[in-house]
Amino acid sequence: MSTGSRKIRREMSGEEFFVPDLCRVRAVFMLLVTSELMVLVLAVIRAQSGWIDWHYFGLLSLFTQWTVLTSAAIICALRRRIQHLSVVRVTALVTVVVLLDVLVFSLFADQVLNPQTSTVQWQAVGRNVLLALIITLMVLRYFFLQHQWQQQRQAEMQARLTALQARIHPHFLFNSMNTIASLIATRPEQAEEAVLDLSELFRASLRTQDRLVPLSEELSLCERYLVIEGLRLEKRLTVEWQVDPALARQAIPPLTLQPLVENAIYHGIQPRPEGGRVRIEGYQKGAFVYLMVQNPRPKEDQIHHEGNRMALDNIQARLWALFGDTAVLKNSQHNDIYTVTLRLPRQTVGTVGSGARQP
Question: What pTM did the predictor assign?
C-alpha cells in the first residue's frame, strides 16, 4: 500500500497527532496571522494617543514573529519523536520549548534595546514568559479540542460512509435474473458468466471496509455490469472505453463509477428504442484525474429522476467526506449528450488482486 493511502486511512481512523503539522506553510501562516492580530490588539491597548502605538507594534511584531517561527521550526523537527507520547507529556514538552524560546529572545531583545545597562530587566522578561505560557496553553487547548471534534466527525463520517455504501444496490437485479433465466436453456455458459458477474457486483456493494480501491478494480466492476446489461439490451447498447492505462492505480472510492454507468444505462439507453452509446473516459490533467461518463440526453421527465439524484448525492457525499473540496462531481448537457464529470486528486493505491477482468 502506498504512503498516500496509509495517510488517508490514518486520517480516516482519527489517529492524527493533535498538534498540527507546523512543517506546512499553511499552518505556519495561520500562526503568524493569529499572533500578529494579538500584537495589534496589545498595541491598540497600549496607545496613549491616537489609535495605535506604532513603535511598540513594530518592536513587538518583530519579537513575536521570530519567536513563533523558531518555536514552530523546533516543534516541527520534534514532531515525529513526540507524536506517540501522551497528551500531558506533549503539552508539557511543547510548552517548555516555547518558554525557552521566548526566554532566549527576551534576553536578546533586552541586550539590544538596553545596551547601556548591565542588569537584565527581569520583570519584563518574566512578563513575556508568563504571557507566552498563557497563550501557549490556550493554543494547545484549542488544538486538543479541535482534534477531539475531528475525531468525532471522522467517526460519524465513517458510519455515514458505511450507510451510504450499503444503500448502493443495483436496481437491475430483477432484469438481470430474468435475463439469466432466459439464457439457462439456450446459452448456459453465458448464463453462468452472468451469475458470476452479478455476484461480483453485489459482493462489491456489500464490502464496506475499503475506503479506496484502484481505478482498475472499479473499471472491471463497470465492465461486469455492462456485460450483464449487454445481454439484455443486445445491439441497443454500444460501449466506448477511453481510459488512460496509467491511471490503473488511481485511488477511487468503491462503487463510485459503476453507479454513474448504471444511471447512463437506466436513463439514457433503456428508454430509447434505438438504444445509444455509453462512453467512459479517463485522463490526468495536472494534479487531478478526470473521469467522464457520457450517454444520450435523457428524456425531459427523467432528467431530475429521484433515483438519479439520490445516486449523485450519495457519490458526492462520499467524495466530500474522503477528499474534501478537491473532489468535484458535476453534470452537463451539450448537443443531446449528457455528461457526468468526476474530478479526483491524483492519488495511488496498491492494486488489489480480485481476479476481475480488465476493460
Answer: 0.56
Helix axes 173-186, 215-233, angle to 10 degrees: 60
Residues 107 and 225: their CA atoms lie apart, in Å, by 72
Instruction: Give 300-335 as a DSSP string.
Output: GGGTT-HHHHHHHHHHHHHHHHHHGGG-EEEEEEET
Three-state SS at 252: strand
Contact 72, 24 (CB under 8 A): no
Lowest mean pLDDT among 116-125, 175-184, 218-227: 116-125
**Roughly what angle, to the nearest 10 degrees, separates helices 122-167 and 188-206?**
150
Question: Whole-angstrom Cα distance, residue 33 to residue 68?
Answer: 11
Beta strands in the chain (DSSP E): 213-214, 237-243, 251-252, 276-285, 288-296, 328-334, 337-345
- What span, in angstroms and rounded, lies between the C-alpha atoms of 1 and 357? 21
330-354 pLDDT tens trace: 989 888 899 999 999 999 886 443 3
**If you count them, how many residues does the chain have?**
359
